[in-house]
Specification:
This protein is of the alpha+beta class and 397 residues long. It has a domain of 204 residues: 3-Layer(bba) Sandwich (FAD/NAD(P)-binding domain), CATH 3.50.50. The protein contains 11 helices and 22 strands. A hairpin with a 5-residue loop joins β16 and β17. It is globular and about 65 Å long.
Length: 397
């Protein structure tokens, strides 16, 4: 069967894109293919559920713009679809002179990004969060929490209502572009589409190679390990509690996150994953490991970040080290408070030169658009990202 559009990937970016295409082109035919038995099974369903405000991103950058728009659009979508969310606010806590300097720089960046942020002194921080200690903090009131898995379910219903078709348990095994259409194959079945958009997440580089594209990056899975607190400690914080990030490090650091179900998680760290989609602790996939081990950019990344990599690995293997990261600003936590919680895996695009790609990366042909990198805050920004993708995709060849 021939469709106007095919979307590969049932995470939140793929779903938002399919929804946008059907809204912009009523009556169009569209099929969304997802290899799992349910929507949002990977990055979307394993993240912290935060609706980010965009405080970290360079003023005027695409990430800053999309995050700001995305936070408003996410809250509006939830309100329209009866999905519970909470605007609980976030505190970035400084615990040293150096972090106070970084906090001041973040404050100036937030002002340039027109994000409401308030400085708090140590006493104001203690009054607002009695269990948190620091020399100062930035309070970002617009940060929220939500279940992105619930958003995926609502988007799936919206796609169906608009006439779109969703095929679950459908793994794509072939992609071939011709002058008039793209043929998509999957275990004896095939579809044709005038335009194809691929939101493959952890498999995005493999799908690009399957389509015959020449790419200079690979996906390296970074495993984010979390703990959760016992239920009787869920009132330990009122807001989300983040450390002030080190600009030299690629990730934000271990934080306390209130979840929409009332629980509180601690994490994540960031260690190399031995399987792209292996969430249990000892998951190993030799094919996944070979993919990045044979890519020269991986070893350049490891060397460039060797100090932080050793620290992260040590804390992954040694729970007291992990706890120490949290006790810097939450001294009341104990080892017994760190209960097992499912990990997440981040699809990190790495260039041949070893650079971590922090911006969006699209590869386009006449009839295909591959989202090769959709970095955090992609879940928050999914709705405006989808608008941007739809505009690109609607350009006729």
């Amino acid at each position: 069967m021939k469709y106007d559009y095919c979307v590969i990937g049932g995470g939140i970016v793929g779903l938002a894109t399919a929804m946008r295409l059907l809204e912009d082109r009523p009556g169009s035919s569209l099929v969304l293919l997802e290899k799992e038995a349910a929507l949002g099974r990977h990055q979307t369903g394993h993240n912290s559920g935060v609706i980010h405000a965009g405080i970290y991103y360079p003023p005027g950058s695409l990430k800053a713009e999309l995050c700001r728009e995305g936070a408003a659009a996410t809250k509006a979508f939830c309100a329209e679809n009866g999905i519970r969310f909470e605007t609980c606010g976030k505190l970035l806590v400084a615990t040293s002179d150096l972090e106070m300097q970084r906090m001041d720089a973040l404050y100036e960046r937030s002002r340039q990004n027109t994000i409401e942020v308030h400085r708090l002194g140590a006493d104001e921080l203690k009054e607002r969060e009695p269990n948190i200690r620091g020399r100062g903090a930035l309070f970002v009131p617009s940060t929220g929490i939500v279940s992105y898995a619930e958003m995926c379910e609502a988007m799936g219903r919206r796609i169906a209502a608009l006439g779109g078709e969703i095929r679950l348990s459908t793994r794509v095994t072939g992609l071939r572009e011709a002058p008039d259409a793209v043929t998509i194959g999957s275990d004896g079945e095939s579809w044709q589409a005038r335009k194809l958009v691929v939101c493959g997440g952890l498999q995005s580089d493999r799908l690009a190679l399957l389509a015959g594209l020449s790419i200079t990056h690979r996906i390296v899975p970074f495993r984010g390990e979390y703990y959760r607190l016992p239920a009787d400690r869920n009132d330990i914080v009122r807001h989300l509690i983040y450390p002030v990030p080190d600009p030299a490090l690629p990730f934000l650091g271990v934080h306390l996150t209130r979840m929409i179900d009332g629980s509180v998680t601690v994490g994540p760290n960031a260690v190399i994953g031995f399987a792209r989609e292996g969430y249990p602790r000892l998951s190993v996939n030799l094919s996944d490991m070979a993919d990045y081990a044979l890519f020269p950019g991986f070893w350049k990344t490891v060397f460039a970040n060797r100090k932080s990599a050793v620290t992260e690995l040590r804390n992954s293997l040694w729970k007291p080290g992990y706890l120490a990261q949290c006790r810097k600003y939450c001294p009341g936590l104990k080892l017994a408070d760190l209960l097992p919680h499912e990990a997440g895996i981040r699809a990190q695009a790495v260039g041949r030169d070893g650079a971590l790609i922090h911006d969006f990366l699209f590869v386009e042909t006449e009839r295909m658009l591959h989202v090769c990198n959709a970095p955090s805050p992609a879940a928050t920004s999914a709705i405006p990202i989808a608008r941007m993708i739809a505009r690109r995709l609607m350009r006729e060849p």
